[in-house]
C-alpha cells in the first residue's frame, strides 16, 4: 500500500478577508429557487454552518506566492491520495474543481453564464483566490493571538445567546412575582422562594451578558478583514454526484496583528495639521460668532411685557415662559367712533376752512320718537356668541 502523501501545512503570513469566525454561518441557496422549492429541497440548499475566511494572494508578493506553491502541492497530494485509495478515477482529476483559483484565468458562474473571475470581481485581478473553511460539526478552529508584549494568548470563546437568556430569565421573574402576588398564606413562603431564585437567575444572565460583551470587544479588536494571520490548513479531495474537487479545511489560526482593516485609512493620512487649523478657523468664524441659545432667550424676555400678561396665563417657574391660553375674539363696539381731533400743529396754515358745526339732535318725547331702523350686519364680521342681542 502506498504511503499517504502530506496534505496538511502552514501558510505564510497572509491577510484574511471577511471572517466568519465569531459565529458559524450557513450558506443559503438562491432566493428565487428557495421560493419554489419544497421543504425537503430547501434543507438541501442550505449548507452546514461553517467557520472560515477568504484570502487574496498577490502574484507580485513573494511571500504570497510561497503560500500559493504550498497550497498547490497540498492539492496535488490530496488528488494523488484519492486516486490511490480509489476514491477518484483519473477522469476526476481532469474535471476536478480546485479551491485555489487563478482570478485571471479561472472561470466562475455569474447567474446562468460562465465568466472570468476578474470580470465579476475586478479587485481580484493579478491575484489567486482561496477560501479556508471548517464545518461547525468539526468545531471552531483553534485561534490564538500575539499580544502587544509578544506573548501568545488564546482568544476566548465567544459567549452566544445572552440576549435570549436575559429575556427568558426576565419572563420567569415576572411569572414568579405574579404568582407571589396572588398566593395565599400557605403558599406565600414557597412563592417568595421562587421569586428570589428567579431574581438570582436574572442577575446571573446579566453578568454573563456583560462578560460576553467584553469578549466581543476583544474579538472586534483582533479579528477583522485585513488582519495579518498565519493559518494551518488541510487539503481534502471530495466527490459528489455533480463533480469532484479539492477544498482547504481551516485547522488553526494565529493572529499576528498589525493589519490594516480592509477599506480603511489611517487618520493622519486623511487629516493633516493644516486641515485641523483650517477647521478651527472655520469654527471660530461660523460657530463661536453666533449668539448662544441663552442670548436668544434673554433677547426674547427683554421684549416681553409681563405686566400685560393675562392673569389666566400659566408661567413656568423654572424657565419663566408664559403659556398663553387661547383668547376669545374681542367684542366689536357698536358705538359710533369719536371723530379724530386734529391738533393745530397738524393743520395746514393755508387752509382757511372752518370746522363744520356739530349737529345737535332735538330732544323729543319718547312718545313721538321713531324706532331706529335695524342695522344690517354681515355674518362674516360678527360672532353670534358675542352678540346674542342682535340676532
TrEMBL record:
Species classification:
Bacteria, Bacillati, Actinomycetota, Actinomycetes, Bifidobacteriales
Its recorded name reads DUF2815 family protein
Q: Does the keyword Coiled coil apply?
A: yes
Q: What keywords sit in the KW lines?
A: Coiled coil
Q: Where is the composition biased (Basic and acidic residues)?
A: 29-46
Q: Where is this region: Disordered?
A: 29-59, 310-391
Composition bias (Acidic residues) maps to: 310-320, 342-355, 376-391
Q: Which residue windows are coiled coil? A: 159-215
Does Coiled coil count among this protein's keywords?
yes
Q: Where is the composition biased (Basic residues)?
A: 325-337, 359-372
Question: What InterPro entries does the annotation carry?
Answer: NA-bd_OB-fold (IPR012340)
Q: Which Gene3D superfamilies match?
A: Nucleic acid-binding proteins
